[in-house]
Amino acid sequence: MSIPTLAPYELPVLPVDNRVGWRPDPRRAALLVHDMQAYFLNKFDTAQAPVPQLIANTRRLRDVCDAAGVPVFYTAQPVNQPAGDRALLNDFWGPGLTQPQHHAEQPVIEPLAPRPQDTVLVKWRYSAFQRSDLREQLRARGRDQLIVCGIYAHIGCMATALEAFMQDVQPFLVLDAVADFSLAEHRMAVDYVSRRCGVSLTLAQVAESLARTDGGQPA
């Protein structure tokens, strides 16, 4: 079993009833660009929604974070994943990009390629915190908020947001800078984060908060 071919859908901009009023603070936040590798994007028709808007919004979000002095992290699965490392992922998703025909799809796509100042984490499980030093790096930089964008919303993005919450890091899911297997699963991820572990915001809301100088709190 592998990731299926994914049908097009338009990115939602949903009214979200967030349970808490957290907002990203440029002095506290870090950005995580989650798994924006060609292998995962190519499960869609990349010429159709949601891919072009996802890429444009993620790039815009990164620009906003750069302007606010927010550090940028990436996750990317490696091509070398021995069976003992990939483990249960094989049962759900097969060998994935470890197959030689997919090796060229491993890098993060060129419009979002990591820069020298960015930090790239090797991705082993759904959550970016698993088998990485993400928590330690956030702590070392004095960051206790994590803005999450990328794919797929209801798998790695949501799992990372949930674990951030459990690590005492406030997570923010950027609802129009993530994409998913379907609109229904996209909405589920947005709703779960907003109700159980963090805050789901639009790119515009994140940009507004990061531009503020009073801790990012809404007026």
Count of all domains:
1
Low-confidence stretches: none
Helix % is 25-40%
Instruction: Note the overall shape.
Output: globular
Tally of contiguous helical segments: 8
Q: End-to-end distance, in Å?
A: 49 Å
CATH class: Alpha Beta
Give the SSE map.
Layout: E1 29-34, H1 38-41, H2 51-68, E2 72-76, H3 83-86, H4 89-93, E3 119-122, H5 134-140, E4 145-151, H6 153-166, E5 170-179, H7 183-197, E6 199-201, H8 203-211
Parallel strand pairs: 1-2, 1-4, 2-3, 4-5, 5-6
Helix pairs in contact: 2-8, 6-7
Structure in words:
This protein has 219 residues and is α/β, with parallel strands linked by helices. The chain has one domain: Isochorismatase-like (Rossmann fold, 3-Layer(aba) Sandwich), CATH 3.40.50. It is 35% helix and 16% strand. It has a six-stranded parallel beta sheet. Strand 4, helix 6 and strand 5 form a beta-alpha-beta unit. Helix 6 packs parallel to helix 7.
Give a quick set of tags describing it.
Rossmann fold; 35% helix; 6 strands; 6-stranded parallel sheet; 16% strand; alpha/beta; 219 residues; 8 helices; single chain
